[in-house]
């Protein structure tokens, strides 16, 4: 079972990611589900503390309107889930190199305003699920 965890504060974009994941699960006939879909980092952390040993794919925005940003959240996720796949999706292309400073081993860094978000997500999912 593959679990998808989304932390995105833009409601429209979060819905778009949900649709992409659900389509991917259907297309691949994947045994998977969206286990967390939130704007709050604490909900992600509550999930990962209990489920860090599951097969998890985290889709995180970097600029969150919360008490931490997506990079800090990813660092905290790694304390409980060293094997989970982290995909950053953000408008802030200038932060792409910053992800390496946090040492969170991100699978991908996708800029929101590009045309191929769906295909980039699917490529990352294929790597994570393979």
Automatic annotation (TrEMBL):
Question: Which branch of life, at top level?
Answer: Bacteria
SMART domains, A to Z:
REC
The chain residues annotated with the modification 4-aspartylphosphate are 61
Q: Which PROSITE patterns match?
A: RESPONSE_REGULATORY
What would you give as a GO molecular function for this chain, any one? DNA binding
For whether the record's keyword set contains Phosphoprotein, the answer is yes
Does Repeat count among this protein's keywords?
Answer: no
One matching Pfam family, short form? Response_reg
Which keywords accompany this UniProt record?
Cytoplasm, Phosphoprotein, Two-component regulatory system
Residues annotated as transmembrane = none
Start and end of every Response regulatory domain?
3-127
What does this chain do? May play the central regulatory role in sporulation. It may be an element of the effector pathway responsible for the activation of sporulation genes in response to nutritional stress. Spo0A may act in concert with spo0H (a sigma factor) to control the expression of some genes that are critical to the sporulation process.
Q: What is this protein called?
A: Stage 0 sporulation protein A homolog
């Amino acid at each position: 079972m593959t679990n998808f965890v989304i932390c995105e504060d833009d409601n429209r974009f979060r819905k778009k990611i949900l649709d992409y994941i659900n389509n991917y699960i259907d297309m691949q006939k994947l045994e998977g589900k969206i286990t967390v879909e939130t704007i709050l980092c604490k909900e992600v952390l509550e999930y990962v503390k209990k489920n860090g040993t599951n097969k998890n794919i985290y889709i995180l925005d970097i600029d969150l309107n919360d008490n931490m940003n997506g990079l800090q959240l990813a660092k905290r996720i790694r304390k409980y889930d060293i094997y989970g796949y982290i995909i950053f999706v953000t408008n802030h292309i200038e932060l792409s190199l910053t992800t390496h400073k946090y040492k969170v081993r991100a699978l991908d860094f996708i800029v929101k305003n590009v045309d191929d978000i769906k295909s980039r997500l699917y490529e990352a999912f294929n790597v994570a699920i393979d």
